[in-house]
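Work Package 3 (structural annotation) set out to generate three-dimensional models for the target panel prioritized at the project kickoff. During this period the team completed the workflow that converts sequence records into C-alpha cells, so that structures can be stored uniformly alongside our sequence database. As a representative example, we reproduce one entry of 439 residues exactly as it appears in the project archive.
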Amino acid sequence: MDKTGFPDNFLWGAASAAPQIEGGWNEGGRTPSIWDVAPPKKIKNGEDCHTACDHYHRWREDIALMKEMGLKSYRFSISWSRVIPEEGKVNEEGLRFYSDLVDALLEAGIEPLVTIFHWDLPLWVYKKGGWKSDAVVPLFRNYADTVVDALSDRVTWWMTINEPACFIMNGYLQGAHAPFKKDILSLSRLSRNAMLAHAEAVKAIRQRAKTPPKVGVALSSGAFVPKDETKESVSWARQHSMETGSGLLTNRWWMDPILAGKPVRAYGIFNISEKDAKEICQPLDFVGLNIYTSMNYNEWSSDGQKPEPGLPRNSLGWVIDERVMYWNLRFVYEKYRLPILVTENGVALNDTIALDNRVHDAQRIDFLHRYLGQLKRAIDEGIPVLGYQHWSVMDNFEWAEGYDPRFGLIFTDYATGKRILKDSAMDYRKIIETNGAEI
C-alpha cells in the first residue's frame, strides 16, 4: 500500500448497465426485456430505453473516452435477451458484441468487470413465470454457463447479479419498476429464486472459467451514520444498519444468506430457510456494494429521522452525506469479513452544456472528493477495499426516472448522441493518475 492509502492495484473505474446505455433493443437478434415493454405512463415523460445512449453502435467511441479518462477498469452488464433471445437458443451475434467489447477494453488497458444480470429480465423468461417461478433458476444457470464459456478466457472479475433488493422490492413490492407489480405475498419466493440464481451463477463461474476468476455479487447497501462516534451511537447505528428496521430489508435480508449462509425470517411472510441459505451461500472473493445515501432519512422506515431543512441533496432529492461511505464499508466488513469492491457510487445532477460548450459539474467533483475521502479512511483503518466504480460512466436511462437525472462523468446529448467529457471526468483522471494522492 502506498502513502495515499489506496493500494497500487486499486480498481479505479466507472460503471454502467446494459439496459441503461446500450439501445439496439431489437437489433442483432436481441428480443425484448421487461424494461423494453414498460408502459409509457410508468416512465417519466413517457420515455423508454429503446435507444438509450446508443452504446450498441457507439461502443468504440465510448471506450476511447474511457481511455481518455484514464479508467483502469469498467464495470458493465450483459443483456440476457441479447445472448439468449428465446429458450434454448444462443445468439452468437449477441455474444460477439460482448466479446468484441472485452477485446477493445483490454486493448485500451481497461480491466473488464462483468455483471451477468442487471435488472433486464427477458420478456420470454417473465412469461414463463420470471422470478416467481422456480424454473428461472436453471434458466439463469444456462445463461451464466453461456456467458462464462464465451468470455472467461479474458474476463477475471465477475458479479452475478446487481441489487436483488431493488429489482425485487421495487418491481414487486412498490410496483415502481418493471414489471410494476404489487405482490407482497410472493416476496419470499421471489427473493429465494433470485438468491438461488446467484448461487448457480457462482457455481457456473467456478466450474467453467478458463482463467482463475474473482467472483462477487453487487448489492444495494446503506447504513445509518451515527450522530457522533461514541460507543453508544455507533452501536445503535450498527444495529439498525445491519440487523433490524431499515437494515433488515436493505442489508441483512440479502447478505445473511448470500454472504454467511444464515437463514432470515421477518414479518411473518419472509422466510429464507436454513437449507436454502446453505445452498445460496457459495464462496465469494469479494462483495460489491452500491453506496449512495445514508439511511438516516428513510421516509418509509420507523427508525429514520426527519431531515433538517437545507441539507445538501442531489437532483433526485437524496441527501448527500459522504460519511455513509465509511460507515457502510465498516459495518459490512465487521460482520462478513469479505473484501469489498465499491461497485456503484455517484450523484445525480441537472448538468447542462455551458456557453463554452463544456459541462462544468463542480458539485460532482466535490462529491467525488468527499466520498473518496471517507473511502480512504476505511482503507487506512484496514478494511480491504479492492476498487471504486463511479456511477455512471455516462448519463443514461435512469429507469422509471427516464433521462432527467444525470449521473455520468460523460455528458450524453440524447438528441444527437454527442458525448462531452465533463469537468469531473478530467478531475477523476487526475485522481486515478495519482492513485488518490490528492484525496
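Residues 187-208 form the longest helix (22 residues).
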